[in-house]
Design brief:
CATH superfamily: Immunoglobulins
Number of strands: 16
Structural class: mainly beta
Distance between the termini: 83 Å
Order of helices and strands: HEEEEEEEEEEEEEEEE
Oligomer: single chain
Radius of gyration: 26 Å
Helix content: under 10%
Number of helices: 1
Strand content: over 45%
Shape: globular
CATH architecture: Sandwich
Strand order of the largest sheet: 2-8-7-4-5-16
């Protein structure tokens, strides 16, 4: 039986047209998850960290705000602190979207209260974060859910981290408690110093 090649070619084109198929590059629509921002507390005292959390986007986040300009390519959380009361807007961008959360800083602080310094700081993987404490009764105990502390006592503490993200450290003394936060950024994160209008005392000021 002899097959009509011309007829087969026409039939094949007809079938492709009917089924919606076509030759060329196939394209698929990409869905971008809406970006949102949340804060862990409604208000915080001066020189105390507030942790912001971003959801959505493409997983790479750029945080910006008053005296703050840090690209954190490693995580969806970022900690910020300020030495003066006020309302500070922190914005996160990802995949062309942006979301803003307000940080409400209250109080004037007390030199006699238990305080951990710096309240927030930025380090990259492998870098050492160093903290100190004042106030209380002079006897201090450090704790953290992120690391095991062999010797948790003393007025100072240093640690480095093997994973990115926000790390919290808590120190107690004489029944008082305070917390510091460390932003551990990926090694390729870009930290851009900004000349602050307020004293440079923590991670919220580009340190």
């Amino acid at each position: 039986m002899k097959t009509n090649k011309k007829y087969l070619a026409i039939s094949l084109v007809t079938i492709l047209a009917v089924t919606g198929m076509s030759f060329g590059v196939l394209s698929f629509a990409q869905t971008v998850t809406p970006l949102s921002c949340s804060v862990n507390v409604s208000s915080v005292n001066v020189n105390q960290p507030t942790i912001f959390t971003a959801t959505g986007g493409n997983g790479i986040y750029n945080w910006s705000g008053a005296n703050l300009n840090v690209t954190n390519s490693g995580g969806n959380q970022f900690a910020v602190s300020y030495p003066q009361a006020g309302v500070y807007a922190i914005t996160v961008t990802s995949a062309g979207q942006s979301a803003t959360c307000d940080m409400n800083v209250v109080g004037t602080g007390s030199t006699n209260a238990l305080a951990c310094y710096p309240a927030t700081q930025n380090v990259t993987l492998g870098q050492v974060a160093t903290l100190s404490v004042t106030g209380g009764n002079g006897v201090y105990t450090w704790s953290s859910p992120d690391i095991t502390i062999a010797n948790p006592n003393g007025t100072g503490f240093s640690a480095n981290y093997a994973t990115i993200g926000v790390k919290t450290l808590t120190v107690t003394s004489g029944g008082l408690i305070t917390t510091c936060a460390v932003n551990v950024l990926a090694n390729n994160a870009i930290v851009v110093p900004v000349t602050p209008s307020l004293p440079n005392t923590g991670g919220g000021y580009g340190r």
